[in-house]
Design brief:
This protein has about 270 residues and is an alpha/beta fold. About 35% of the residues lie in helices and about 15% in strands. It has helices spanning about 20-25, 25-30, 35-45, 55-65, 100-110, 125-130, 145-160, 185-190, 200-205, 210-225, and strands at about 45-50, 70-75, 115-120, 135-140, 160-170, 170-175, 235-240, 245-250. It has an 8-stranded mixed β-sheet, with helices on both faces.
C-alpha cells in the first residue's frame, strides 16, 4: 500500500482476538507482515463478492478461511451440473439451488464465525451501490463487462477498493483498483470500450484450475488490501497463460479523459 495511505477502518481500535481465533489464524499471525494487527483488520472487514461462480468460488473460500468478518455474496443464478467442473464452492447436492445459498452453506461449514449475507439476484448499478455501502472492499468475479463497469463506478463514488479478475479458455487476468490513491487508474482506464460478445465459458470452455488460480490471486489481493500489507496490483494487469504457465505484468495509467474517473470524490 502506498505510504501515508491508511484506510479509516485500519485506524479504529480492534477488540482482541479470542484464543480460538489466535489458534485458527496462527499461520497468518506468524507472518511478520500480517501479525495480530493485520488479522484483526481482516476479521473486522466486510467484503462484497459479486459472483459465486468459477472465480467467486475460490475467492469466497479463501476469504472465509482467512477470517473475513462479513461476506456479502451477490449472484442471481442457480447451480447447474456444468458448473461443478470449476465452481468448487458448490457440490453435486447443490444442483438446482441458488448459488448464494449453496455457497453460504459451504462457507458456514468452513468457518462458522464468518457472517454471510446472501443477495440472491444480479445487481445493477443501484443494487451495487446499496450493497457496497458499509463494505471495505468489493471483489468482482463475473464474466460481464457491464457488471465490471457498474462496480467500477460504484467503487469510485464510494471510495472503495475494487479487485477484478477474468478467465476464459486457457488464460486469465487480474488487477486491483484503489481510487483512494491519486495514481490509481480505474477499470475503464484499462478497458475504455469493452463489450460483452457471444464468447463465454458456455460457448468456448474454460480450464477448471485456471479460474482457481485467478480467483486465488484476487483473494490474495483482497487480503493484502484489507490487512494493509504489500503492494496491490494497482495500475498493473497480471495475466496468466495456463498452456505454457507464463505470467506477465503490464503497466497502465490513468486516462485523463476517462468518464468514470470524473466520479472521483474530491
Amino acid at each position: 500500500m502506498a505510504s501515508g495511505l491508511i484506510p479509516s477502518f485500519l485506524m479504529t481500535p480492534f477488540p482482541d482476538l479470542t484464543d480460538d481465533e489466535l489458534l485458527r489464524y496462527s499461520r497468518h499471525i506468524l507472518l511478520p507482515q500480517v501479525d495480530i494487527a493485520g488479522q484483526q483488520r481482516i476479521r473486522n472487514a466486510s467484503v462484497l463478492v459479486v459472483g459465486a461462480g468459477g472465480l467467486g468460488s475460490p475467492i469466497l473460500l479463501y476469504l472465509a478461511a482467512a477470517g473475513v468478518g462479513e461476506l456479502r455474496i451477490a449472484d442471481g443464478d442457480t447451480v447447474d451440473a456444468t458448473n461443478l467442473q470449476r465452481q468448487i464452492v458448490h457440490t453435486t447436492d447443490s444442483v438446482g439451488q441458488a448459488k448464494t445459498s449453496s455457497a453460504a452453506a459451504t462457507l458456514k461449514r468452513l468457518n462458522p464465525d464468518c457472517q454471510v449475507v446472501e443477495i440472491d439476484r444480479a445487481l445493477d448499478q443501484d443494487g451495487l451501490h446499496r450493497w457496497a455501502q458499509g463494505c471495505d472492499l468489493v471483489v468482482i468475479g463475473t464474466d460481464s463487462f457491464a457488471s465490471r463497469y457498474d462496480a467500477n463506478v460504484v467503487c469510485i463514488e464510494l471510495g472503495l477498493p475494487l479487485v477484478s479478475g477474468a478467465a476464459l479458455g486457457m488464460s486469465g487476468q487480474a488487477t486491483s483498483i484503489d481510487v483512494r490513491r491519486d495514481d490509481s487508474p480505474c477499470f475503464r482506464c484499462l478497458y475504455p470500450d469493452g463489450e460483452d460478445g457471444e464468447v463465454s465459458c458456455a460457448t468456448s470452455g474454460v480450464l477448471g484450475p485456471l479460474v482457481g488460480m485467478i480467483g486465488a490471486i484476487q483473494a490474495t489481493e483482497a487480503l493484502k488490501i484489507l490487512a494493509g500489507i504489500g503492494e496491490p496490483l494497482v495500475g498493473q494487469l497480471l495475466t496468466v497463460d495456463a498452456l505454457d504457465m507464463s505470467v506477465h505484468r503490464f503497466q497502465f495509467k490513468r486516462n485523463p479523459t476517462c468518464p468514470d474517473c470524473a466520479h472521483r470524490p474530491t
